[in-house]
Amino acid sequence: MREYSDKKNVQAKAYHSDRFYKSPQLAKEKVSSDKQFSEDLKSLKTKFKISESYIQKDQMVLFIEPSDIKEVMKFLKEEIEYDFLCEMSAIDWLEKSNQFEIFYQMLSIKKRKRLRVKFFINNGEAVESIVDVFNSANWAEREMYDMFGIVANNHPYLKRLLMPDDWSGYPLLKTYPLIGDEAAHWYEIDVIFGKEHRKVVGPEIRDTKRVDQKDTTQFARVRSEVPYGAKPSNEKTNFTEFQEEGGVPFITRFTKDRQKTLKNRK
Amino acid sequence: MQTPNRLNPYYENLVFEREDNRMIVNFGPQHPSAHGQLRLILELDGELVVKAVPDVGYLHRGMEKMAENMIYNEFLPTTDRMDYIAATANNYGFALAVEKLLGIEGEIPRRAMVIRMMLLELNRIISHLFWLATHALDVGAMSVFLFCFREREFAMDLMEDYCGARLTHSAVRIGGVPLDLPKGWLESLTAFINKFPNDIKDYEALLTKNRIWKMRLEDVGMLTAEDALNWGCSGPTLRGSGIAWDIRKEEPYELYNEIDFKVPVSDKNDSYGRYKLYMDEMNQCVEILHQLIPMYRDSEPGLMAKVPQYISATKEELMTDNFALMQHFVLVSQGMRPPVGEVYVATESPKGELGFYINSQGDPYPYRLKVRAPSFWHTSLLQQILPGTYLADVVTIIGNLNIVFGEIDR
Question: CATH code at B205?
Fold first, then answer.
């Protein structure tokens, strides 16, 4: 893929927002409202700096220092029985504060509790890999690198996971383009047919929502079908009665009065 | 490094005559036993696997990116395409996450909950049958494949009778279900679940004491409890290592706390133990479905939550109440605007813990949506459990882990 340099947020946006509408907030409860969580938090606080902590939807959320992450994970796993890393990934806040937010979703099978460890890193900074503590972070960190370009230091095999190796750009950034530009429309056409045939072939359509009214080979003309290759017409057809000219091999001609509904299918 | 010439041609995939006499083989991405587009790069010493590197991403459609550019209701049919064997489990996982974000999980009518659970358990049967069929086919038991697909067809007919679709159901919506059960559906379901335990006995008669089946599965794909936790395994793979963790039981959602069912666990740590566990789980699905039928009959009609701010009102209200119609118009054209906040909601899909992390900034589009798909973590486990096994067992292990590539690559 070619380099892409535009750095605007290109995500879909609501076309209308009420000026006076204020979004409600999901309630954040104090950690002291849950006995188990407050115990865990207390033991964590003896060793690590925790800048913020609250409970949202029965799960504790902790904000820690980025440099502590590996030690925190080790502590969670070995000391307070959060021995299952469910998920980890990042959130792009580049437009707002030039930062990424990294979250680690943890589960304790013995305590039946879930908590989320979070921290912020600046754009261009790396995180410390936790593969030594949780092997499951191996692919999660690779996916994070693949999607956001966030490097995990000391990862055994930091390589793109889902995208091809030679891809440039990181798809989950808010600045990543949603559709190809003018050059992308002609790229395959030039390679396959040659530049001189651009007028004959036309550009490649990469907009999946586009409906081509003249298309008779795809499914764009539901209820207005015509035989293969024929010119489209605007007359509506009743598709239950639609027949190919001359019939279809091995299929007897279907007429509406001969149809019959089976009473028992199974 | 190879120096290709006429006598010593260059093969992209195979390396012959290395000093240590090892061979590197590409298993997939078009291998029929790879259950989709899995490319495994295996380093073999004779037939012994020395190193395995799974390579995924051939089915990557960027669903998390798509989710950020769709309103919540628009994304729901897309979740069908993740684990396409158990589409309802995905729909439900997403719907529950959004409901928790909206704070309306207590508003769902009881009848909708019962229908959702029926669909979930029916889908679990479909998924487990598919797993058994393809796994047995990989190991060499062709007839089991045919038996399983026959019963799966009946279950899919039930799905079709309810929602019209067989594979991509979208039958669970945010806030409830769109339709009540059609006439005669409960009778068809009863007929199916009365017959199905006998079918399970047939499969067990074919497999459980089968000498070849036991030789191929016993002590193959050993996974200790410690490894299973460390690699993020969940669902039957975790329970096959002796850890009784089923989210339906431990963190009950819907009406699972009112239902009496067992969580099968196996401490044998091998593929055979996991096979037995899957069979037990199918029996438990039947038990759950039996208990759901009277619960449905006792429930009041009512299918969608009555929260007009987020969920469109019923058709009748839309046609009679002007304000409901206005709200419906805004919901359809702009989408619902959930509160600012984040949730992580895990449900027990047939494959394991299916989690949806949603970060909402109050817009109609999620700011970030992360899908925790169980197969993703089970595939990463392959690099741990394949080395030390034989090439023939690779197929057994991949089949046994029940991975589906729609949800690995998303």
Answer: 1.10.645.10
A183 vs B: CB within 8 A? no
Burial (CB < 10 A; 0-12, 13-18, 19+), residue A238, is: exposed
Is B397 part of a structural domain of the chain? no
Give the length of chain B: 410
Which pTM value belongs to this model?
A: 0.84
Between CA A69 and CA A118 the distance in angstroms is 9
Which residue of chain A comes nearest to B370, CA vs CA?
Answer: A89
Measured distance CA(B163)–CA(B172) in Å, rounded = 10
The answer to whether A58 and A121 have CB atoms below 8 angstroms apart is no
Cβ atoms of B247 and B256 closer than 8 Å: no
B353 burial class (0-12, 13-18, 19+ CB within 10 angstroms)? buried
Instruction: Tell me the CATH architecture of domain A31-153.
Output: 2-Layer Sandwich (3.30)
Where in chain A do CATH 3.30.460.80 domains reside?
Answer: 31-153
Residue to test with chain A: of B166, B342, B381, most A Cβ within 10 A:
B342
B250 CB near a chain A CB, below 8 Å?
yes
Per-residue pLDDT of chain B in tens (410 residues, 90 and over written 9): 456 666 665 665 555 555 667 888 888 787 777 677 888 888 888 889 999 999 998 889 989 999 999 999 999 999 999 989 999 999 999 999 999 999 998 889 999 999 999 999 999 999 999 999 999 998 888 889 999 998 999 999 999 989 888 899 999 999 899 889 998 899 999 999 999 999 999 999 999 998 999 988 988 889 999 999 999 999 999 999 999 999 998 889 989 999 999 999 998 899 999 999 999 999 999 999 999 999 999 988 888 888 888 998 888 888 888 888 988 998 988 889 999 999 999 999 999 999 999 999 988 999 999 999 999 999 999 999 999 899 889 989 998 999 998 899 88
B329 and B279, same domain (yes or no): yes
CA-wise closest residue to A152 among A178, A181, A132: A132
With 0-12 CB in 10 A as exposed, 13-18 as middle and 19+ as buried, what is B271?
A: buried
Q: Cis omega (within 30 of 0) on the bond before B29? A: yes
The answer to the question of residue B272 being in a domain is yes
Report ipTM (2 d.p.): 0.85
Contacts of B337 in chain A (CB under 8 A): 21, 23
| Dihedral of the alpha carbons of A41, A46, A52, A57, in degrees to the nearest 10 | -10
Taking the CA of residue B210 and the nearest CA in chain A, the distance in Å comes to 31
CB contact under 8 A, A14 and B339: no
